[in-house]
Design brief:
The protein is of the alpha+beta class. The chain has helices at 7-23, 28-34, 41-47, 66-77, 81-91, 103-108, 222-258, 270-298, 304-329, 341-349, 358-372; strands at residues 113-116, 132-135, 139-150, 157-163, 172-178, 184-186, 200-211, 260-261, 264-265. It has three domains: 7-112, Acyl-CoA dehydrogenase/oxidase, N-terminal domain (Butyryl-Coa Dehydrogenase, subunit A, domain 1); 114-220, Butyryl-CoA Dehydrogenase, subunit A, domain 2, CATH 2.40.110.10; 223-372, Butyryl-CoA Dehydrogenase, subunit A, domain 3 (Up-down Bundle). Helices cover 47% and strands 14% of the residues. A four-stranded antiparallel β-sheet has the order 2-3-7-6, with no helix packed on it. Strand 4 and strand 5 form a beta hairpin. Helix 1 (7-23) runs parallel beside helix 4, helix 7 packs antiparallel against helix 10 and helix 9 (304-329) packs antiparallel against helix 11 (358-372). The radius of gyration is 21 Å and the shape is globular. The mean pLDDT is 94. Bound molecules: flavin-adenine dinucleotide (FAD).
């Protein structure tokens, strides 16, 4: 059993970290104010091979492991959890479920994709979705509304889970709807607590015309593709939370050496030193657990889904708690935007909610435990 990263993996982390510090961190607050990420960032990320991390090389991807992807998302989120997570959201579907036609464009990030599962009436209970795709002579006419879509109105294409058949998961298919399609429109930008640099909006379909070529895989298999994408998506979201929290902890270590109270720097108070130790344990254990889950997904072990859910739950809770404690250790300055901590706290809160809420993670874990007994 090896716990250390290979030389190649360390290089992947260092490359993503350096890119984030040079090209994302200096702009993160401006992008947050503007409510958008410049689109020319994505081809730059793609040039580093981070557009299709685990897509095979013959399809234009990097052919790396899920474990490698956790390193990339952790490193990028150290620059900005909102930007790093956006890549995580669009990259999660980068599997062979997408046919050759789409993968090269996805990997070069000429085409930015959004992923549309949630609806106003169905979030956790995703299989209850009601967006319907009726067959037409040329393809499909899609009608319905998707809610909370990261990149809604910004992306070039939308991977849409919609109903082509019966109620329940087996009646769901997955279609690609390109920006500009007839009958495609968007709601206003959501005004959010965090992740403010990435646009979130409703995506609306009104008899939206989709050619039959844009069906991903087979009809009726869309939900299984979506669920398969979620295991990796959960790792990406967890890794981004970890990177944000690690950055908050690094900043706190520096700050505590500079800030004085009662005649000494605050890192001299044992009560606060113990808080540092607790935070370090939380993040290191979260990292180990995350990498174990990624290893299981890479090796397709039967318990991979359960481990991805456990890692998502544990890492995102630990990361939010550490970021929040870091804010506390900054005193009043932690509450000011200039110190960078409050943004991390705001950004990390949603990691406990999306890619399946942490309650749903408990559901997945406990169901599997009961099934295995
Ligand atoms: C910023 C942001 C970006 C997002 N981006 C996307 C995106 O790009 N694409 C996309 O498809 N979706 C996206 N989402 C949606 C996200 O995945 C959903 O918000 C999430 O799955 C929860 O669904 P819901 O909001 O409808 O909550 P609900 O399902 O209504 O849940 C409400 C509460 O009830 C709890 N709950 C529900 N069912 C159970 C149960 N059986 N047992 C115990 N507790 C339960 C939940 O945990 C939660 O606490 C995004 C959300 C946000 C906030």
């Amino acid at each position: 059993m090896h716990f250390e990263l290979s030389e190649e993996q360390s290089a992947i982390f260092d490359m993503a970290y350096a890119f984030g510090q040079d090209n994302i961190a200096p702009h993160a607050r401006d992008w947050e104010k503007q409510g958008t990420i410049p689109k020319d960032l994505w081809p730059q990320i793609a040039q580093l091979g981070l557009g299709g991390i685990y897509v095979s090389e013959d399809m234009g991807g990097s052919g790396l492991l899920r474990l490698d992807a956790t390193l990339v998302f952790e490193a990028l989120a150290m620059a900005c959890p909102s930007v790093g997570s956006f890549l995580g959201m669009i990259d999660k579907f980068g599997s062979d479920d997408l046919r050759a036609k789409w993968l090269p464009k996805m990997c070069s990030m000429e085409t930015v994709f959004s992923y549309c599962l949630t609806e106003p009436g169905s979030g956790s209970d995703a299989a209850a979705l009601r967006t319907r795709a009726e067959r037409t002579n040329e393809g499909y006419a899609v009608t319905g509304t998707k809610a909370f879509i990261s990149g809604g109105g910004y992306s070039d294409a939308y991977i849409v889970m919609c109903r082509t058949g019966e109620d329940g998961p087996k009646g769901i298919s997955s279609l690609i709807v390109e920006h500009g399609a007839d009958g495609l429109s968007f709601g206003g930008l959501e005004d959010k607590m965090g992740w403010r640099s990435q646009p979130t909006a409703q995506v609306q379909f009104d008899a939206c015309h989709v050619p039959s070529d844009n069906l991903i895989g087979e009809e009726g298999r869309g939900f299984s593709y979506a669920m398969a994408g979620l295991d990796g998506g959960r790792l990406n979201i967890a890794a981004s939370a970890l990177g944000g929290a690690q950055q908050a902890l690094n900043m706190t270590l520096t700050y505590m050496g500079e800030r004085k109270a009662f005649g000494k720097s605050i890192d001299q108070f044992q009560a606060l030193q113990f808080r540092l130790a607790d935070m370090e344990v939380k993040l290191q254990s979260a990292r180990t657990f995350l990498r174990q889950a990624a290893w299981k997904l890479d090796n397709r072990t039967p318990d991979a889904t359960k481990f991805c859910a456990m890692a998502k739950l544990y890492v995102t809770d630990a990361a939010f708690s550490v970021a929040n404690d870091c804010l506390q250790l900054h005193g009043g300055y932690g509450y000011l935007a200039d110190y960078g901590i409050e943004k991390i706290v705001r950004d990390l809160r949603v990691h406990q909610i999306l890619e399946g809420t942490n309650e749903i993670m408990r559901l997945i874990i406990s169901r599997q435990m009961l099934a295995d007994r």
